Amino acid sequence: MLMAHPAVLRNLLDQYETLCALQAENGGTSEVRGRLDDLAYTLCVSTGTRDIGSALAAAHHQLTGAVRYSREEALQAA
User: Fold this and answer.
1) Residue 49 is inside which H or E element, if any?
2) Distance between CA atoms of 50 and 33, rounded to whole angstroms?
3) Distance from the first to the final alpha carbon of the chain
4) Neighbours of 32 (CB within 10 A)
5) Which positions ≥6 away from 4 have C-beta within 8 Å?
6) Which residue from 67, 71, 74, 43 is spatially nearest to 57, judged by alpha carbons?
7) What is the pTM of this model?
8) In terms of Cα–Cα distance, which of 43, 3, 35 is closest to 18?
9) Quick check: helix, strand or coil at residue 2?
10) By the number of CB atoms within 10 A of the CB, which of 34, 36, 65, 69 ranks highest?
11) Are 31 and 40 contacting, i.e. CB atoms less than 8 angstroms apart?
12) What confidence tier does 68 reach under pLDDT thresholds 50, 70, 90?
């Protein structure tokens, strides 16, 4: 399975979480809801999942693994 680059995944998560907070504060406009739907779809495709809950969990898991992997690489290179 193809995996999204960690920077892309982090960006998608940041946008999604920011818009969720905005929607919670203001009730959200149709533009915000539409963008959230787009981000949810993109996160699902990027993580190989079918619902936003699973996509968020998978994205967080992948990012945790990416951070761990890059730290291990840095330690081995030293």
Assistant:
1) none
2) 18
3) 31
4) 16
5) 12, 46, 47, 62
6) 43
7) 0.79
8) 35
9) coil
10) 36
11) no
12) low
